[in-house]
Amino acid sequence: MPQKVSDTPDISHAAVLAAFADDAELARICGTPDTIISRDGLTNRVFRIEADNGDFFLRLPGNGSVETIDREAEAHNLEIAASLGLAVPPLVCRPETGLLLTRDVKERVSDRTKLAVALGHSVARLHGSGAVFQGKLDPDDVCAAEFSRLEGDETLADAARPLLDAIARAGGQADLRAKTVWVPSHGDLSEGNCLMTGERLWLIDWEYSAMAEPAWDLAYAIQEIGFTTAQEHQFLTAYGQAAGDLPSARQMNFMKARCDAVSALWAFGQMAQGRDQSVFLSFARQRRDRALGLLASIT
Questions:
Q1: Which of 95, 118, 208, 248 is deepest in the core (most CB within 10 A)?
Q2: pLDDT tens string 155-187
Q3: Looking at the domain assignment, is residue 83 inside a domain?
Q4: Domain carrying residue 201
Q5: How far is 144 from 123, CA to CA, in rounded Å?
Q6: Where is average pLDDT lowest: 36-45, 106-115, 140-149?
Q7: Any residues with CB less than 8 A from the CB of 15 and at least 6 apart, and which?
Q8: Whose CA is closest to 35, among 61, 62, 54?
Q9: Mean predicted confidence (pLDDT) in 88-111
Q10: How far is 150 from 272, CA to CA, in rounded Å?
Q11: Is the domain of 292 the same as that of 148?
Q12: Same structural domain for residues 160 and 199?
């Protein structure tokens, strides 16, 4: 999903100070906050905190996320991912409020080629772990649920409807529907959720984690990170070396299209709820048009 970041230091963030006042564990772990830097996304409010006892990230839920995200499932899945060495271990996790505290990840490295290989290995470890996540991520069910949010706004519904029609047409081709195998999946492998350091890769933001088809994480990462053709090959090769079978190229393109469709319908749904079209409209159209192009290529 799109992200927005503000690096403007501000020690007067009322929401953070209120969270510290309400939850004594935050102050016990962090000490007194010295600097609070907002890194707000579109789903949550995220803050980097420089405090007496080190640097931390604090996530507070944004408007609307309480209704759309299963925080109990997220907490369960995050604990498993941390035990596998894939997720930054939570210091405080409150499913009832959506609050999450972790340590900051230092010495980040920006190199998509290295990321492609490291991510392939990490996703293979997750998928092959045998762990059982709570929740189920089926792109067709997600598309239907997101489209239902557009009821009452015919303009947005008309803009989104061609996606569902094209997916239904493509889905009738037997070779595109691989035998369904459900594996523990991150669900939202955007570049912002992959933190490379000099030694390892950390995956953050497990809100949409669930059991899913292996192709979901693969296709979503390719679409959202924007790997080049060579980097995509490195990513899939690294995954295949550890995990074994890979989806066919047509199956991957079908899943890429459904990943884009989910993202487009999510953005249309945000506008249907009255959120700023200047933030979501171009994103929704870009993902919709890319999905339709992929679907046209396989039908």
A1: 208
A2: 999 999 999 999 999 998 878 876 789 999 999
A3: yes
A4: 112-297
A5: 27
A6: 36-45
A7: 45, 60
A8: 54
A9: 92
A10: 6
A11: yes
A12: yes
pLDDT exceeds 50 at position 16: yes
Q: Does 4 fall in a domain?
A: no
SS (H, E, C) 207-251: CCCEEECHHHHHHHHHHHHCCCHHHHHHHHHHHHHHHCCCCCHHH
Tokens 């830097």, residue located = 37
Residues 278 and 160 in one domain: yes
Q: Do 10 and 30 touch, CB atoms closer than 8 A?
A: no
Q: Report residue 261 as tokens.
A: 């469709």
Quickly count: other Cβ atoms within 10 Å of residue 17's Cβ. 13
Look at residue 6 and tell me if it is in a domain: no
pLDDT at 93 over 70: yes
Per the domain annotation, does 157 fall within a domain?
A: yes
**HSE toward the beta carbon, residue 276, CA cutoff 13 A:** 3
In this predicted structure, the answer to whether residue 68 has a pLDDT above a threshold of 80 is no
CATH of the domain at 78: 3.30.200.20
Same domain, 59 and 169: no
What residues contact 167, with CB distance under 8 A and at least 6 apart? 140, 143, 257, 258, 261, 295
**One domain, residues 150 and 250:** yes
Distance CA(295)–CA(74), nearest Å, equals 31
Based on the fold, state whether residues 232 and 124 are members of the same structural domain: yes
Contact 244, 127 (CB under 8 A): no
pTM for the model:
0.91
Containing 60, the helix (H) or strand (E) segment is strand 54-61
pLDDT at 35 over 50: yes
Q: What's the total number of domains in the chain?
A: 2
CATH of the domain at 202: 3.90.1200.10
